[in-house]
């Protein structure tokens, strides 16, 4: 799995490097070339998003205990992607020298003031957009952490359940062993009592036999 993730990483690095170079060129291009370049960058940005989705799927397949490092890398890539999209938006609204001169025309001061105001409004919109994107990324990161925490908690509960079952089985085996020991002890005690009684009875019989058949010392007869 890690080899697939690393392959996607390499593709993402190459693709984002190309996008960065093209974004830097967009404001300086003539209108026709600019339009074509914008379409090309949009296509590559979509490819980069798909690579991020593939990497995200790969990370979700990693066991939770090994997922932290990959999750951090994914957050970094998503931040890089967000920056590329912001830079791309800025490059699209940046005016080339030709467009700027056309807007200024004869009334340079008035047109320039309008252009400055327009830039300020667009910059304000971009700032709002960036804040929304950052909030969205934070929410996404928080959701991901919540999902990972839930998965870890579920695994811990499963492990505790398995351990509880093992302890229960061990207790049952211990009770069975205690019961068997009790039975064996009672049997052994009974056997010892029976053996003691047998020895006692045999001893009593021998004493009675001696009393019934006394032996005469022959030496005394002489």
Automatic annotation (TrEMBL):
Residues 34-61, 115-180 form a coiled coil. Keywords: Coiled coil, Membrane, Protein transport, Transmembrane, Transmembrane helix, Transport. Residues 124-191 form the T-SNARE coiled-coil homology domain. This is Vesicle transport through interaction with t-SNAREs 1A. CDD domains: SNARE_Vti1a. InterPro entries: SNARE, T_SNARE_dom, v-SNARE_N_sf, Vesicle_trsprt_v-SNARE_N. GO terms for biological process: endocytic recycling; Golgi to vacuole transport; intra-Golgi vesicle-mediated transport; intracellular protein transport; macroautophagy; retrograde transport, endosome to Golgi; vesicle fusion with Golgi apparatus; voluntary musculoskeletal movement. It is found in: Endomembrane system. Belongs to the VTI1 family. Pfam families: V-SNARE, V-SNARE_C. The keyword Coiled coil applies. It is a single-pass type IV membrane protein. GO terms for molecular function: SNAP receptor activity; SNARE binding. One of its GO terms (cellular component) is cytosol.
């Amino acid at each position: 799995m890690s080899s697939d993730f690393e392959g996607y990483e390499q593709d993402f690095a190459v693709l984002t490097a190309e996008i960065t170079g093209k974004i830097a060129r967009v404001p300086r291009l003539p209108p026709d070339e600019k339009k074509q370049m914008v379409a090309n960058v949009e296509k590559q940005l979509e490819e980069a998003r798909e690579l991020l989705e593939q990497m995200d799927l790969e990370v979700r397949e990693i066991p939770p205990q090994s997922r932290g490092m990959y999750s951090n890398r994914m957050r970094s890539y998503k931040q890089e992607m967000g920056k590329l999209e912001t830079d791309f938006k800025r490059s699209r609204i940046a005016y080339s020298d030709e467009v700027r001169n056309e807007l200024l025309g004869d009334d340079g001061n008035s047109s320039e003031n309008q252009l400055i105001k327009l830039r300020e409004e667009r910059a304000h919109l971009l700032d709002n957009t960036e804040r929304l994107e950052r909030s969205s990324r934070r929410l996404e990161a928080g959701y991901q952490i919540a999902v990972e925490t839930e998965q870890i908690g579920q695994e811990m509960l499963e492990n505790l359940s398995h351990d509880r079952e093992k302890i229960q089985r061990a207790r049952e085996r211990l009770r069975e062993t205690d019961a068997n020991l009790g039975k064996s002890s009672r049997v052994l005690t009974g056997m010892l009592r029976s053996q003691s009684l047998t020895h006692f009875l045999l001893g009593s019989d021998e004493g009675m036999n001696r009393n019934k058949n006394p032996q005469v010392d022959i030496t005394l007869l002489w």
